[in-house]
Amino acid sequence: MIESLLVANRGEIARRIIRTARRLGVRTIAVYSEADAGLPFVAEADESVLLGPANPAASYRNVEALLAAAKSTGAQAIHPGYGFLSENAEFARAVEANGLVWVGPGADAIAAMGDKINARNVVAAAGVPVAPGGADPAATVEAALAEAERIGYPVMVKAAAGGGGMGMASAADPDQLRQEYEKVRGFATRLFGDGSVLIERYFPRVRHVEVQILGLADGRVVALGERECSVQRRNQKLVEESPSPALSPATRERLLAAAVRAGEAVGYRNAGTVEFLYEPSSGEFFFLEMNTRLQVEHPVTEAVFGIDLVEAQLRIASGEPVEIPDGGPVGHAIELRINAEDPKRFLPGPGAITTWVEPTGDGVRVDAGYAAGNTVTPFYDSLMAKLIVHGASRAEAIERARAAVAGFEVAGPKCNLPFFAELLDHPEFVSGDYDTGIVSRMR
């Protein structure tokens, strides 16, 4: 087992990784920006290193500072968490070139899946269903229009190098496509340094379902069930649950097998997630993207499978076997992302936390990055905590979620807890028959 681990992240995911590493007897090193000096994860690590100012480019995305911190503290390995540099193939290569263990998939797999067009082509060659669309980027607006004409409107305009729901827009006709193409291309160039654009068929009423995979040290790729991620705002997830209430046993079997094929196509190792769009009316599903890292929503899989995915990551990176649970998921789990944002318009609302009381009870788990007295700053993602509930059934999980939301007290920054109280009573969500448009229909 790895003996010392630098956690190249912040907030709740840094605390999450530190907790498991400590249980395994692994020495932990936290890195932090000036803005995060007072957050719990800094104090909970065995050692901590200041990276630099609040700006992520000067701290959490500063490769030289991260490698210097690892060297000065004698870290043996680096865990990137999610976001920041977690899916940066060059960072993964730099970590290994400096003689450190990278807790994640190989750099080649990260690179192969980091470009949506390349990822689409790789998995399609392995027999994974992909949505109608182009095998090459649309280099001009004329090429985009021709591709849209071929596959039919409406279409989705995607930044090929994008992720996390960013750099995406739909177009219902040629005029709208012209506008959105230029917007997405400009956005992608500014944010990702790559203006490549992919045109795919857009499905107005779909569900977003993803599969947790593990690429084991012995070369096998296994699937640990699926997560339903259709409660979204601006293409970004707010709620996840497992198992998905939408899938039949036969569809589930096909979906998991497709995810394993996608992982095998790039020789995947460590934890990853294969995301799909599921079209309930036809029963078809299509590859969306692959996240070559630990997902924010991994706790719902942990709850229903009784596995610690961070422990699995560390064991795989150490070349050790991982005990895979027998059988399928047990019960039902739901995760709510507690964000510092307006519960109506979802606009960020940072601020000092004056009250922070976490709910407790059977089947209730809170992964928090903050506590009373901390300040949510505007420099990073608005996620403050994740509320995870587990029950014997979906109905019991919803009941536990309602009680936990009612018992979660946050004051100071804006908070989206009232939205979850509304959602958990909404007939569409309670029925399980919802899609990615549910939030817009609630507003």
Quick synopsis:
This protein has helices at 11-23, 40-44, 63-73, 89-97, 107-114, 116-125, 141-151, 174-192, 249-265, 298-305, 309-317, 394-407, 417-423, 427-431, 438-442, and strands spanning 4-7, 27-33, 47-52, 77-79, 101-102, 155-159, 168-171, 197-201, 207-215, 221-233, 236-242, 270-279, 284-291, 332-339, 351-352, 355-357, 364-368, 375-376, 383-391, 409-411.
Structural overview:
- The protein has 443 residues and is of the alpha+beta class.
- It has three domains: 100 residues, 3-Layer(aba) Sandwich (Rossmann fold); 70 residues, ATP-grasp fold, A domain (Dna Ligase, domain 1); 236 residues, D-amino Acid Aminotransferase, Chain A, domain 1.
- It is 34% helix and 26% strand.
- An eight-stranded antiparallel β-sheet has the order 13-12-9-10-11-14-19-17, sandwiched between helices. A five-stranded parallel β-sheet has the order 3-2-1-4-5.
- The model has no long low-confidence stretch (mean pLDDT 96).
